[in-house]
Amino acid sequence: MSSVATTISTPISIEPGSDAFPLLSAAQIDRLRPFGKVRLVRAGDILFEPGDNNVPFFVILSGGLDILEPCPSKPRPLVSHVPGSFSGEFAMISGQRAMMRGRVNQDGEFLEIPAGELRGLVAKDAELGDIFMRAFILRRLVLIQEGAGNVVLLGSRHSADTLRLREFLGRNGYPYKYIDLDTDERSQCILDHFEVKLEEVPVVVCNARNVLRNPTVGELADCLGLNVSIDESQVRDLIVVGAGPSGLAAAVYAASEGLDVLVVETATPGGQAGSSSRIENYLGFPMGISGNELAGRALTQAQKFGAHLMIARSAVRLNCDRRPYQVILDQGTPLAARSIVLAAGAQYNKPPIPNLNRFEGQGVYYGATFMEAQLCEGEDVVVVGGGNSAGQAAVFLSQRARKVYMLVRSEKLADTMSRYLIRRIEENPAIELHYHTEVTQVDGNDHLECMTWRNRATGQSSPQEIRHLFIMTGASPRTAWLEGCLALDSKGFVLTGYDLDKPTLEAKAWPLSRPPQILETSLPGVFAVGDIRSGNVKRVASAVGEGSIAIHLVHRALAEM
Ligand SMILES: Cc1cc2nc3c(=O)[nH]c(=O)nc-3n(C[C@H](O)[C@H](O)[C@H](O)COP(=O)(O)OP(=O)(O)OC[C@H]3O[C@@H](n4cnc5c(N)ncnc54)[C@H](O)[C@@H]3O)c2cc1C
To answer: Which residue's C-alpha comes closest to atom 1 of ligand 1?
Structure first.
């Protein structure tokens, strides 16, 4: 949602009657009455505090409700609800803890509806669902824009840990106030107040009382209560491991088709796609869409249908000897499910070049499609790698680029590349091959501008003004945690469907009379989608497609149990 926020340049109106604070009609309120009970309230009553879990939804029938920030230095309400208005923001849908204090400002009557009932209603009643979703999303955007809420982050723009925490909060659409210790004059006061030493920065203050010193994202998620509404003892229809495009697609389709689904994500929703500044080849977005925005929209959609998301938690083992299967988390917690979708993706193998991440999508690429080729029209490019994908990229790019420098660490291509490709490369005057060579440095401002490569045999370094670097050194699947449970290919990607031959299935003791369905692994009811799957085309669209198809197959597998 944060990325949606960045596309809104005008302030959102917080006046009663605006989209963010609509007033319900008497007929709409009557439709809500059966879901809750009327509660008498008195001026000064506190209905919820920052950090409270499972806060109900209130419709103001008479009287009024102030929404206040937890920080005592700001006693003025952020907003005041009047009759016809209702409380809540996006946490009402995602099941997270309250960020604000709700204090009654005038005696009256409120309709109180449990949060779970409201979530059910949003998925079923199209008219009210639209009103609430729009209001909750806009209210979250107001909080993000204002830096309002229950989190203060004190950090330095020169600190990688500060960037790590800002990225985590931003990509999770969580509002926070940022205080830059390098420029903010009050910062020493704040550090003294919370007895924090400079070397403990970055520091996060949650709910104006808990102080976290350089926390992990898991500790921060716990403090914010991001996973608080998740019942870990429940046996679910489906657990999806990974919230990249494939996992989010699986979550949307599973939840919308009535399955009880939990998604577990190590870092932040969006996966690799989340780090792409613009995806231009995804159907329906002719002007492109940032990976972060696509992920934010998909996550909102999944949560609207009732999918649960467990953030900053990793699956570290699969107990696969009996059903329901168990996904074991990093803290040792077992989560049980009748079926599993593995959507943990892959990681491009990255050579250890300082600052490489800074230029991803801005001159550093991991794929060479028509789109990247257009960006390099008439310019020099570098392709790193000695395998078939590097060879294909070099040949393809040579049609558009002025010159392609192909850098290979070894002394020849014959061991790693097909013969026909080697011949094409050697005969192509636009490709210049450099053996024993690796990139040691990249530099630039907003875009990659120059790099240095070094010949490992001679030790000679060559600085070059080249703006495009293609890293084609393969990808590694995130499958180490599945050890022993599933059949994998020689590179560790998960084998599915037709790729599982008879001997492999026998070796894995496939127990059913039917063969595995497409996308099904050597374990019945466990599916693999997206980049983690052997033979997958590493693209957002194919990840989304596979995640969606898998749910149809999950239904079949569940019916067999
Ligand atoms: C910089 C960049 C730009 C790209 N640009 C494009 C583009 O323009 N167009 C295009 O089509 N493709 C693009 N791609 C490729 C595309 O992003 C991937 O093919 C796609 O994201 C794969 O989706 P996925 O869901 O299978 O896996 P991923 O996106 O890799 O997501 C997997 C998720 O699983 C999580 N995870 C991993 N292990 C665990 C675990 N043990 N427990 C819990 N969670 C776990 C990860 O944190 C991650 O969020 C790009 C890739 C990169 C890196």
So the answer is: 276
> Does any ligand 1 atom lie closer than 6 A to the CB of residue 181?
no
Q: Is 68 exposed, middle or buried (0-12, 13-18, 19+ CB in 10 A)?
A: buried
Q: Express each pLDDT in 493-539 by its tens digit.
A: 999 999 999 999 999 999 999 999 999 999 999 999 999 999 998 88
> What is the tens place of the pLDDT at every residue in 211-239?
999 999 999 999 998 998 899 999 999 99
> Among 264, 276, 290, 537, which is best to mutate for testing ligand 1, by the most ligand atoms less than 8 A from CB?
276
Q: How confident is the model at residue 207 (pLDDT cuts 50, 70, 90)?
A: confident
Q: What is the atom index within ligand 1 of the atom nearest the CA of 275?
A: 1
* 73 touches 177 (CB < 8 A): no
CA distance 354 to 349: 14
CB 317 within 8 A of CB 328: yes
| Amino acid letter, residue 152 | V
Q: Answer for the pair 273, 249: CB distance below 8 angstroms, yes or no.
A: no
Average pLDDT, the chain: 91
Q: Rounded distance, CA 212 to CA 192, Å?
A: 15
